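Subject: sequence -> structure tokens, single chain

Hey, anyone have a minute? Need the predicted structure for the following. Not urgent.
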Amino acid sequence: MSTHNPVPSEHALADPILETKRLSKEFKGFAAVSDLNLKVERGHIHALIGPNGAGKTTVFNLLTKFLTPTTGTILFNGTDITREQPADIALRGVIRSFQISAVFPGLTPLENVRLALQRATKTSYHFWKSDRCLDRLDARAMELLDAVGLAEHSGGLTSELAYGRKRALEIATTLALEPELMLLDEPTQGMGAEDVEKITALVKQASAGRTILMVEHNLKVVETLADRITVLQRGSILAEGTYAEVSQDPQVLEAYLGSAHA
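Reply:
Had a minute. Here:
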């Protein structure tokens, strides 16, 4: 199994917000992630790509502590978070979205975003208080809905939203948690071309003032958004660099890009 870990350029190492050192995860002897040395620079959009089974989602699960590493270290803002719980990671400002839309279908978009704001302001458990104490959150919730193009849909049921709008709502709820680092898992999965363009624009907008690490199969989206790309193969880093650099790498063309364009 290859454990090739290219050394990123000096520029890319300038200010890592997230770093893994020899991160590995084994399942009954199978190495899903092997000796991963990943650095994500602050303020950048960093894409994690690779063929199915390359270990991308496993890496996300390790970073957000839904899985415990077999070996290795995870650093966030220079602090070792390897043994912290998922809730602790979220409180540090590492917020993840999932491949499947994670919003409450029986609530309105406004209520979904307000719930996220309640968590951010630690009023989630104030059940005994009047709804009026939450009214102050509505203005911010509407700002976030407007930012993702959902202001006019704020009062309808989330279950009635089109798929692309549900994903936009998920971005709004993620932003409500004031993330310092957003982990986006396949944000454009299952979308038509029009929705892909809208979500791409939203991700670019959401990146202002924060860092994004994303798993994405749509290479056009990756080319449009990513400042830096890490290509995984069998749980190890195959190549790193800009889209122009990795798209010309012979190993990448053979392992991933070539088959994607075939």
